[in-house]
Amino acid sequence: MKKTIFITGASAGIGKATAKLFAEKGWNVIATMRKPENEKELNLLDNVTLLPLDVTNVDQIKETAQKALTLGDIDVVFNNAGYALLGVLEAITDDQLVAQMETNFFGVVRVTQAFIPYFRKRGSGIFITTGSSAGLMGFPMSSMYDASKFALEGWSESLSYELNEVGISIKTIEPGLVATDIGDRSVFVSHPAYESLMGKFMALIAHGEDVTTAAEIAEVVYGAATDGKNTLRYVCGEDAKALYGQRLAEGDEAFRDSIKKMMSI
Ligand SMILES: NC(=O)c1ccc[n+]([C@@H]2O[C@H](COP(=O)([O-])OP(=O)(O)OC[C@H]3O[C@@H](n4cnc5c(N)ncnc54)[C@H](OP(=O)(O)O)[C@@H]3O)[C@@H](O)[C@H]2O)c1
Fold this sequence. Notes:
Layout: E1 4-7, H1 13-24, E2 28-33, E3 48-52, H2 58-70, E4 76-79, E5 85-87, H3 94-122, E6 125-130, H4 143-165, E7 168-175, E8 178-179, H5 182-185, E9 187-189, H6 195-206, E10 212-213, H7 214-226, E11 233-236, H8 238-250, H9 252-262
Parallel strand pairs: 1-2, 1-4, 2-3, 4-6, 5-9, 6-7, 7-11, 8-10
Helix pairs in contact: 1-7, 2-3, 3-4, 8-9
The chain binds NADP nicotinamide-adenine-dinucleotide phosphate.
NADP nicotinamide-adenine-dinucleotide phosphate is lined by residues 8-9, 11-15, 33-35, 53-56, 80-83, 103, 130, 132, 175, 177-178, 180-182, 185, 214.
């Protein structure tokens, strides 16, 4: 029997790569995105259905989840939509910080809530979330993005106990730097007093050659969806594995010194 995955933020990057991989593997894919009318690639695939979803739109989350469930059974919900609000907190507006949490955190929470009753009645189902190594370690110049990703960590870990009770799994994918266009969708807020630190941070995230591809992260999502395990976190990408390993080995205080040394700050 064909399985089905529901994906948020499938118009680009990790979401699109995951939609393509699952379709290739013979799954039905419900690829949701803010503007399905602009999609030029996934709409050409037989087993992919496009549905509209802005994860900040509470009514649309409910409508799209209901519509998706009329298409057939759903086995996996992949909460992936997100963007990065980066830069200096004192210059970030209230609208900007609320918007970051609305998308990266409440979007995931609300989409999950919309599917829990269905998975509970069915006695099975897997939620997978795109977290980040920035949810396991705080990096300079990204306090709001990191807060949104740290929030997902505590939320998923706590939620795992109640969901496991009714046969549902929850898993988080933790990539390091991934070669996507996230920079184009992200918001960078600068302030003259922090120019030097911002410059060092931008240089750190700009390096390209050893970055993981979205296709490689999609393989990790596929593994999480099919490994039959109840693992909570999948740290992925050599950069994330090395840095997180270092943080665990050094402890969080010494690790902050290592980050400072790494960035010459
Ligand atoms: N790239 C990295 O280095 C990296 C590392 C760790 C974690 N991540 C996480 O991976 C996830 C995917 O990012 P990506 O790197 O693949 O970036 P991306 O190429 O920019 O893709 C982001 C996707 O999220 C969608 N999106 C943004 N806001 C949305 C909203 N309100 N409602 C619905 N969809 C929305 C975008 O849709 P539109 O086309 O409509 O804008 C796009 O499809 C994010 O959660 C990000 O935080 C990325």
